[in-house]
Design brief:
The chain is mainly alpha-helical and about 280 residues long. The protein has eleven helices and two strands.
């Protein structure tokens, strides 16, 4: 029984990490119609920034803040200086953002080196919880709670606030939002920065659980796109459901048929593309 309980908790912790990465990607595409392959770089950059700050200050919370600020600023620069120039050119977006991913990947390899590194966790999250004969890391439990809290906060922000109403209106009719005197370009930029910052924070949280290393950007990019394809582009609820599906498929695949782990992880994405190309909650 404890074996299955641990697998479920492992799946939930991975799913919440994927949600933190994919939510920003999904919202950015839903609002701005930008295919940003550099989103995985935000995760990698956030992890390494957190690692540097943590090494100098010893504060995990400062590492989280620094990762969010630095990656958010990088997101603003990327959106305003590069991606805005190919706003309506999907091929241009793919090529440009993939080039940025390669540049950031090489920069990270040059600056931080090629060895895998793990961020030190807060002291109070070290160790394990024991319940009913089951032992499970405190950090993963905290990550599950963090992911759930962020999902709830994003839902409240988008569905229950004026800012959320502007964002939703901007998705449906940006011209109408502009006619109301709202600077929709600024809204777009802030949403892009927020999505990038969220991926940066995920880099710190994920770096303390899975480690940070060259190639992590490509891995999380593939996983995030699988989540978005399953959930549907531009849907926060879809990002949550897609993350849960991928998290469980990956964890259970590695637990029961490890030789087919990658296969079981991407099968749901392929099946979704065949059965429902717009995803669970995507728009036609």
């Amino acid at each position: 029984m404890s074996f299955y309980s641990i697998q479920i908790l492992n799946a939930l912790s991975l799913a919440m990490l994927l949600f933190l990465i994919a939510a920003g990607l999904s919202i950015i595409f839903g609002l701005m119609r930008i295919i940003n392959l550099a989103h995985g770089s935000f995760y990698l950059l956030g992890g390494y920034c957190g690692l540097s700050v943590l090494a100098r200050t010893g504060s995990f919370w400062l590492a989280l803040l620094a990762a969010a600020v630095v990656v958010g600023l990088v997101g603003i620069v990327l959106q305003r200086l590069l991606l805005q120039r190919v706003q309506n050119n999907e091929l241009g977006q793919v090529l440009m953002s993939f080039g940025v991913l390669l540049v950031i990947s090489d920069f990270a390899l040059w600056f931080w080196g090629g060895l895998p590194q793990t961020l030190e966790r807060p002291e109070f999250l070290d160790g394990a919880l024991r319940y009913g004969g089951m032992v499970f890391p405190k950090y993963r439990v905290a990550l599950i709670a963090c992911g759930a809290a962020v999902a709830l906060a994003l839902w409240l922000l988008i569905e229950k606030t004026r800012i959320g109403a502007i964002i939703r209106a901007g998705v449906d009719d940006p011209g109408m939002v502009r006619a109301q005197g709202i600077d929709i370009r600024l809204v777009f930029t802030l949403v892009f920065a927020a999505g990038a910052a969220l991926a940066g924070v995920a880099g710190v949280l994920g770096g303390a659980m899975l480690g940070i290393y060259p190639g992590a950007d490509f891995e999380v990019m593939l996983q995030a796109f699988a989540v978005v394809v399953i959930g549907g582009l531009g849907s926060l609820k879809g990002a949550l459901y897609g993350s849960l599906l991928i998290g469980f498929a990956d964890t259970l695949g590695k637990a029961f048929i490890p030789e087919l782990a990658m296969f079981t992880m991407f099968v749901p994405m392929v099946a979704m593309l065949v059965i429902r190309p717009n995803g669970l909650f995507g728009r036609a």
